[in-house]
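Lab notebook, entry 290. We have the chain sequence and a SMILES string for S-adenosylmethionine, and the next step in the workflow is to get a structural model of the bound complex before anyone spends time on docking refinements. Request logged below.

Task: model protein plus S-adenosylmethionine, output structure tokens.
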Amino acid sequence: MSKNNKNYRNKWKKESNFSAQHLLISKRLIHDMITLARIRPTDTVLDIGAGTGALTYPLAEKAAHVLAIETDSAFVDRLFSKMKDRSNIRVKQSDFLEVSLPRSPFTVVANIPYSITTPIMGKLLDHPGVPLQRAVLLVEKGAAKRFTAVPIIDSRILSWRMQYEIRLVRTVSPHHFAPPPQVDSAILFIQRREDPLVLTQDHPKFTSLAAYGLRDPRLPLFAALSDVFTPPQIAKLVRELRVNREYPIGRLNEEQWGTVFHTMLQHVPRHCWPQWGKSPKGRSRKEDNH
Ligand SMILES: C[S@@+](CC[C@H](N)C(=O)[O-])C[C@H]1O[C@@H](n2cnc3c(N)ncnc32)[C@H](O)[C@@H]1O
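Result returned:
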């Protein structure tokens, strides 16, 4: 390491006490993220892990309100000292995972702490009643790939994607940050679906079906769902899905899962629906052949 780099690292270490504080230093990237978020003058925007405000201040120029959440007290002091003339910024020194989310529609634009990416995603996306409209997040590239993977073999991610479109916009190299992280990052774009594939009130039923159906994503569809649907129902279902009964369940897309779910709601007696953490009771072969 060169002497300059060493000095820089030591200085940085003194300033922060958390090794994942990779601050954004690319004006271009900040501009691109905010443009992607299509902020309107009436919007409320959350900046999760605001750091020294690289995103917070430009966001405040576009939005009605910006809520900057940050745990590090040194960063919080800097955020306060720089916000004098900005009355639409609220700084909250808090763990994001402990914060109450707004009850009215909001957007998130953030370079989040990578160490808690999945808990952050879960807090934003697990409950469709949370009025998140859109999010533009910088995350580790590996995580972005996992959230946008095709086929979808993770039932929690599938449940998110029934409510939200999730897209990996582009890879971001480490030199956009100081200090640079050891991994590539990516811009993740999350947009609430105008027509969700599952209604908010049905979401818990869907998450139970998804967890059960994807318990082994390699299973052929007829075997994976044999406790839920009767053989004639499976035969009709696979025709609608335009696949054959041997098709691995882990290869269904979001729209196909929507069809499976709505067929279950319509034609399968309630006592045969999977319940969270339990196997379905099983279909008796004598049951009606809808
Ligand atoms: C990757 S840095 C981003 C900083 C800033 N947004 C930027 O782009 O320059 C992540 C920030 O999240 C903060 N942080 C870490 N854990 C947090 C948590 N649980 N809640 C809120 N902020 C957290 C860190 O202190 C750090 O400032």
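Notes for the group: Strands lie at 23-24, 44-48, 65-70, 89-93, 106-111, 132-140, 164-172, 177-178, 185-192. Worth checking against the assay data. The first strand starts at residue 23 and ends at 24.
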